[in-house]
Every structure is written in structure tokens, then in C-alpha cells.
Amino acid sequence: MGSLFRSEEMTLAQLFLQSEAAYACVSELGELGLVQFRDLNPDVNAFQRKFVNEVRRCDEMERKLRFLEKEIKKAGIPIVDTGENPDAPPPREMIDLEATFEKLENEMKEVNTNQEALKRNFLELTELKHILRKTQSFFEEMQDPALAEESHSLLLGDEERGGQPMRLGFVAGVINRERLPMFERMLWRACRGNVFLRQTEIETPLEDPVTGDQVHKCVFIIFFQGDQLKSRVKKICEGFRATLYPCPETPAERREMAIGVMTRIEDLQTVLNQTQDHRHRVLVSAAKNIRVWFIKARKIKAIYHTLNLFNLDVTQKCLIAECWCPVADLERIQLALRRGTEHSGSSVPSILNRMTTKQSPPTYHKTNKFTSAFQALVDSYGVASYSEVNPGPFTIITFPFLFAVMFGDAGHGLIMALFGLWMVWREKQLMNQRKDDGTWSIFFGGRYIILLMGCFSIYTGFIYNDFFSKSLNIFGSSWHMANISDEDIKNNEMLELDPNVTAIYTPGSPYPFGLDPIWNMAENKITFLNSFKMKMSVTLGVIQMTFGICLSLSNYRFFKDPVSMFSVFIPQLLFLMCIFGYMVFIVFFKWIVYDASISYKAPSLLITMINMFLFKFPDSQDDYMYSGQKGFQIFLVLMAVACVPCMLFIKPFFEWRAHKSGKRTVRVNGATEDTAVIMDQDEGEMPPRPPRGCQATRKRRSLI
């Protein structure tokens, strides 16, 4: 049964694994990817399971790896992804991994702390350097008599105290550029204009030691009189998060301090460079292995999470598990169990027993790199039930073709096909070099879909005669203008080409492939193409719907469900054919019967379908498309109306009657059986009873 057209035949199996071999066996089964485990402990809290401590340790390892990954990306170091897929490490290696991650995390935190402290000191020294440089220019300006008199008058006011000049105090600091206007207004209002502020911007932005962002700052110096204003100015500076620095009063002291600051900056820059080099070396070393470490940590976590679904027997030495697996791969599963037992060094072999159940198994479709994208596309709309027909293989043709019917441009289709062909051609290189970009992953995963969509678009583009929205005259038009003179072309803004005239159109010699390019010059091009594409789309849609209904017949026959066959399939098919099938019929009938000579007599298809449902028919027999049209259309409408109650009521009636009689139909491995309502359908036939303390349930599942 397992093939492209139906899901694989599945069976419920029971595993008996020795405790020391369980980890290795689950690891081998995980690499195989053919087993879906069931939770045998649904009533046990997640924090009370046997391997919860190991899962927490794995979570902690992932947290440390995410921290390292964040630091690597922050430093702009590329993460090496070789495409390597290592096996899950043995449990004893988990301790080594934890020690390695702990050492790297502590080292990175220590380096980050030291680097942040060094950057903070470097920022303070840099700001002090700018303050000493800028304040020197401020004091030199204050030597100007006019400016000194102005500042002195501003600070003293109208009256001098005792006729003696007062000594001016000052503070200097640095503030963020965006806070400066507000800072000035607050100083003016709080000090009532009794301070003198000078400020200038630092040309080069400074690096914030915490965030690493570039910040623009300004140097300011404030002159004032008295201790009261000094206290008020310092409080305002503190409120605006301005940093104040000591600034000597004499030029000699300022010069001496500037020399000392420059020396300390040079020494600090050397230490910073060495710290940055050490940090870079550590991150580069971690970037080479972090992808492999992530895979190992996640595999260990998946194994222990799966082991939490198992039950222990009474001896506490054997783990019991239940899983769904494909019947065709049972031998591969047993070989994987044997390999796991050998790797663990256990002398007791692992046991796999098939169980009988009436539960509906999970759906599993085997895919490869070509069919996986199409199967994922189908599964995104809904996964087929167990043993039902799989629409995936049919989607390989229908989806790209229907896309091309909509797209229909040979030029753009060629670009799409070349892009898909490039991804297929360089598949291995791109797979090894793939990035974490979600958009690129989607494109690369659907490379075969893109290739087929491009190829079909080229085909439909030639049918539409559309190449980058331009028509191609490859074979020469079948329309001629032999009997139309140049004078007629000059005197008439629009000319009508009659296909009934042999000199204009040669009967029996249409354009060899696709649309005649002369339609690109016609006034009624849009009307003609819209009508043509609409009728073609309706025809293709009806064919696809009919095909889908026929697939349901295959399901009903496979599951031996005659009730659905007669109450669902036949009414659905009749309803579709009586309405939409008849519409497709009259489309082709009109194309064949009404040629150019009698095209003016052809009725409108839309009006014909509307009148069909309204039972309005023409009085004259000449207005009918064919003889017996009236009676045939009445019969089709009545047949379609009669199919509606059949689809709505017949099958529910049979299911209601089966329920009243105490039986219902259950699917078992592709067949149907009747089971009494007394037995819970979810439980079905009870499997062999596991040892005490290992009560099996089938409600929660884990996929490995």
C-alpha cells in the first residue's frame, strides 16, 4: 500500500529497551526519522518525569550557546556552517560540553566586563581631553576686554557689592547634544539669568561603553557668583545627566593636566586593543564550532525529551515505549535498535513487538528532495487521512501548470526557469552555504517548483504569444490585407478585417502555435483575450474539480464505503456535470458550430446559463443552439437540484441509523470494521498488558 499515491502502511509497535541502551537506541531511531513515539505518561507533570534534570541541563547549554551566538553576530564574525550533521554525543560527553560552554561564557562575560570598564575610562578621559582643549579657548576669549565687561555686567547686575570686584566661579562638563537647548533654558530660568554659559560641540562622536552606539556630545562651561548658584547649577547638571569634570584655573595647570590625560589615553588605547584582539580570537574559535554545538545540544535534548515519554518496568531496569512506524521499514528500525545496543555495550538486545490496535494511525508520506516541496505545499492546506489518496504527486503537474495559466509570459517564465535551474544545478554548494535568511530558505526549498513554474510559463507564454508583454511574429500572420489599398489605410482610422473574405483570411490555415500576433494591433484585443482566457480557465477548473471528485471515488472503493460512493460521489459528480460540465460543453459547441459566417447568430453563453436556471427560453426555434435544448436544460437543472438533498441527508441518515443500532464504522489499516459503542474507539483492541506501573495511553505523541 505504501507508495506515492497513498500513505505508508503504519503499525503500532512496543519497544523494550535496557536503561543503559535506551539513549543510544533512541539516538539511532532519531537519525533514522521513521518513528513517532506516544506519551505513556500523560498524567505525569513535566517537572516530575525521570529525565527532567537532563532536559534542564540541555536548556542551559542552549542558553549559553545563544549568548555566544549573540556576541559573535554583534562582533560581525561570520558563523561557519559546513553542513555537517554530527550524531548525538554519548551521555558522558555532555559533561565535557557543559564545561566547555561554561568556560566560554564566563570568559566572555569577564572580557565584556573588563572591556566595558576600559571603554568607560577611555570615554571619561576623552571627554576630559576635549574639556581641557575647549575651555582653554573659552578662557582665551575671556581675555577680550569687551567680552569680559559684558560677562561681568551680566553677573554683577546694576550694583557692585562694596565697590570691590567679585571672583567668578565656574564648572565645566559634557552633555548630550539633544539635551543642550533644554539645559540652557533651565539654567536661565532657575538662575534668573545670573550665569554665563559657553558651549561648543565635539566634532567626533563618542562611543557609548554600554550600548556601543555613537553619541554626539557638547562641552560647556558655566560662570557664576556665589556658593548658592554653584549648588543650583550642579543640581541642574545632575538632573540633565551632564558629566562634570575638574578643570584647573591657570593655563599652566591645564596644560600639565592635558599632557597627563593624553599619556593615559595612549596607554588605555593599547590595553583596549589587546582586550579586543583577545575577545576576537575567542569568538572566532567559537564561531567555527557553534553550529555543531547547537546540533549536538538539540539532539541530546530531543533524546531526553523522548525518553520522558517512556515507562519504567517494575525492576527499574527496562524502559517500555510505544511508537508508530512504517511496516516497510521495520527491518531498518530493528537494525537501528541493534546498532544502538552495540554502541551502548549492553548485552541484552532491544525488543520490538508489533501490536494490534483499532486506532487510526498517523499519515506518513515518503518524500525526496524533488517531491518534498510539493508535499509540503499540499500539507499546508491539510494532511490527508491515513490511507487516503495523496494529492501530492498530482500537484507536481497541476500546481505549476495552473500557475502558468495565470502567469502566461514566456520572457518572465524564462527568467524564472533559469533561476530555478541555477538553484538545482548548484544544489550542493547552496545547501552547504545556506544562511539563516527565512526568505532564501523558502526559495531554495521550492527550487523544483520554481523550475517547473518557469517551464510551464514559457509554454503558456507562447500560447498567449506574450514575451515580456510583446507579441512575436514567428510563423507569419494568417491575416492578409491584399484587397485593402494604401489609400484605404490613409483615409480610414479603423479598418475591419472580415474572416469570411478569402483575401483577408485563408480558411483552414490558422496560426501554427498560439495566438496570431495581429491581435496585438486590434482594437478589440482585450475583449477577445479576456473572453478566450476566461473560457479556458473555466474549462481547466472544471477538469480539475472533476479529477478531484474522481480521486474521492478511489478512496471510497479502497475503504469499501458504498454509502459514500452512492450518496456523496455520484451526486457530486452529477451536480458538477449538470451545471459546470454543461457550461464547458456549450463553450466548445459554440466554438465548433458557429464559425465566422454565422457568428452573428451565436447566443451569449452567460445569458444562456442565466435563462437555463430561470426557465426562460426563446420563442423561435431558430434561436436555440441545437434541437431539444429546452427539454435537456430543464432536465439538467432538475437533476442538479435533486442532487442537493442527496448530498445533505442520505449519508447522515445512514450514520444516524448506525449510531442508533449501537455500531459505528472504524477504519483499521485501510479497511473498515464495525465496532460496538461499548468499547472506546480511541482505545480499540487492547494490546498486551505492559508490566505494572507502565499503564499505556495513546493521547499524546512525540515525533522523532
Précis, in short:
The chain has 704 residues and is α+β, with helices and mostly antiparallel strands.
Task: Write the SSE topology.
Blueprint: E1 10-18, H1 19-32, E2 36-38, H2 52-74, H3 91-142, H4 145-156, E3 169-176, H5 180-191, E4 196-201, E5 206-207, E6 214-215, E7 217-224, H6 227-239, E8 243-245, H7 251-287, H8 290-307, E9 311-312, E10 318-326, H9 330-344, E11 351-355, H10 372-381, H11 392-407, H12 410-425, H13 427-432, H14 438-445, H15 447-464, H16 486-491, H17 525-558, H18 562-593, H19 605-614, H20 629-660, E12 663-668, E13 671-676, E14 701-703
Antiparallel strand pairs: 1-10, 1-11, 2-10, 2-14, 3-7, 3-8, 4-7, 5-6, 9-10, 12-13
